[in-house]
Amino acid sequence: MTQRTRRGFLKLGAVLGPTFAALQPSVLFGQLQDAARALGRGVSAYGTRSPFETAVRMLRDSRHPEASSSRTPLQDLHGIITPSALHFERHHAGVPDIDPSKHRLLIHGLVARPIEFSLDDLKRLPTVSRIYSLECSGNSGALWQEAGASTAQSTHGLTSCSEWVGVPLSVLLQEVGVRPDATWLVAEGADASRLNRSLPLAKALDNTLVAFGQNGEALRPAQGYPLRLFVPGWEGNISVKWLRRIELVDQPYMTREETSKYTDLLPDGKARQFTFVMEAKSVITYPSGGQQLSSVGSHQLEGVAWSGRGRVDRVEISTNGGEDWQRAELQTPILPLAHTRFRFNWTWDGRETVLQSRCIDETGYTQPTRDALIAARGLQSGYHNNAIQSWKVAADGTVENVYV
Amino acid sequence: MSSRHDWTVLTTLLLTVVLVCVVTVQQPASQTFNVGQPVTPSAIADWGVNISPMGNGLPAGGATASEGRRIYQQRCARCHGNNGTEGPDSVLVGGDGSLTSGIARKTVGSYWPLATTLWDYINRAMPFDQPGVLTPDEVYGSVAYVLYLNGIIDESARMDATTVPEIQMPNRDGFVPDPRPDID
User: Fold this and answer.
1) Which of A279, A298, A317, A343 gives 20 to 30 Å between its CA and that of A65?
2) What's the CA gap between A82 and A15, in Å, rounded?
3) Mean of the pLDDT values across residues B149-177?
4) Which residues of B touch A116 (CB under 8 A)?
5) Which tens digits make up the pLDDT trace of A348-368?
């Protein structure tokens, strides 16, 4: 039993209180547990996970939980799909409860025919399904700072990956007839901040979706129910949730979210704007910060890698602080603009060392070191930290975040 | 006369060709499905506004900072402080010269490039717990007062659909395009 499972079990005990003793396996491992000698539960209308599974999102301590974030427990996931209930969140004015029968998407502005679409209308149009990851550009933001953060969830948990189902935005734009003078659009949400962002028309026509489905069911409210924009490979903020309106315009509208926020300040006082693409990145999730290796010998390193520019070409692992790099095995299928799981068999000799992964994407771009990022951008740019993550494994097997 | 006429015809023809090309490029011949409800301009007006940097969408009305003080104190000061510097939420005022200091203080005065953005954001999202409650005059007044607290306008300057887009924000030229990939 690893440290993390044991800790989860203790937490579970605290939650379940008196029933804990009843649930605790009372016979030797490998033999039948008490559960096999009593009738189990019947069928249920909407399933829940085992009470032994305790992975949860990590909430940020905030004065306003409605304008806050929660992080995906990457270290507890299997494969590439993030369960919808564990998809990271970043809201700006809370999660609205929207009646889908009353929800409309308006597309107007520089168009031949402004049109209001109901959910039923949208579902009459050609539907596509895409597995895409979504990353907040503030992910790993703490790693610009000296203090850093401690676990894979806290350092990298603002990325998640889902099957998204919806209509290509290009199909909707065909319906309204985009005028030749339109070059951008402004997407707006139906939350209490009516969050708005400008999106270049070329990206809208390329691979942007208007999504209503996520992982086999309707979008979760926290992911934009009943309708969201999904702009693959680009910073999460532009994938406007609770999408209510798209206005075709002839320039970016310089909204609050693309000027005062989500811009990257450089040492000379200038800030980069419209830094849309999420560049190639990876993180080892086992072993990762806060975990403990149970023993010397064979361990399967695991993690996720992704690139906003396309497919992951390869992931390389260093088990000696960056001196040597070896290829990790990639789980197939390797999808563009989606999480790619990697694994690497490693034999730990019991000595202190540093584990790292770096992602190289199909454009040839290589995930940079933290030093290279800081040399190029300073320490104040806040967003878009895709540095190589280093985990120090101590001689006692404990793992922590380090800068090397 | 006739040569000018020819030019007009020629230009029109050329423009038509260009337009047809652009439309063809942007909308490859493909099917439309004729779903959804066509909307009239008056119905669109009910959906609210996105404000452009040129001021498109700004409504009639206006207010000075003096007129905006009351609404700021009633609706904004609780979260942003009487002077816009105290918080506890976003600091709106000050931070001049801090962007290169290593400890940037990004405020409306030190960082925001346009006053139209301030109007758009207050109108759509403020006050945080009661968005949409402000009248256009109250939004103009709040904008004016925040700009006044930052020393960008006088107390008596009236903010309206004409003047808001003309405000020269201190960090107007503070933004550069994305050069990434920026690391070899």
Assistant:
1) A279
2) 24
3) 98
4) 36-39
5) 999 999 999 999 999 999 999
Is a pLDDT exceeding 50 seen at residue A390? Answer: yes
Using only C-alpha atoms, chain A has a radius of gyration, in whole angstroms, of 23
As a whole number of Å, the end-to-end CA separation of chain B is 60
Query: Does B181 fall in a domain?
Result: no
- Residues in chain A with CB shorter than 8 Å from the CB of B150 are none
Domain of residue B102 covers: 61-166
- The answer to whether residue B1 sits within a structural domain is no
Contact between A187 and A230 under an 8 Å Cβ cutoff? The reply is no
Burial class (CB in 10 A: 0-12, 13-18, 19+), B27: middle
**Residue B170 pLDDT exceeds 50:** yes
* A89-90, strands of its sheet edge to edge: A58-59, A69-71, A89-90
Q: Are A357 and A303 spatial neighbours (Cβ–Cβ below 8 Å)? A: yes
Q: Please report the domains of chain A, with CATH numbers, ordered by start residue.
A: 104-146+160-267 (3.90.420.10), 281-402 (2.60.40.650)
User: Is B32 a member of any domain?
Assistant: no
Interface test with A, best of B17, B25, B52 (most A CBs within 10 A): B52
CATH number of B76's domain: 1.10.760.10
Q: Facing residues of A212 across strands?
A: none
B51–chain A Cβ distance below 8 A for any pair: yes
User: Residue B31: CA atoms inside 13 Å, Cβ hemisphere, count?
Assistant: 5
The set of long-range contacts for A49-58, using a CB threshold of 8 Å and a minimum separation of 24, is A51/A12, A51/A16, A51/A23, A52/A8, A52/A9, A52/A12, A52/A23, A53/A8, A54/A8, A54/A9, A54/A11, A54/A12, A55/A8, A55/A86, A56/A86, A57/A86, A57/A88, A57/A89, A57/A157, A58/A151, A58/A153, A58/A154, A58/A157
Residue with the two structure tokens 């001689």 = A395
State the pTM of this model. Answer: 0.90
Provide, as residue numbers in chain B, all residues whose Cβ is less than 8 Å from the Cβ of A260. 106, 108, 111-112, 117
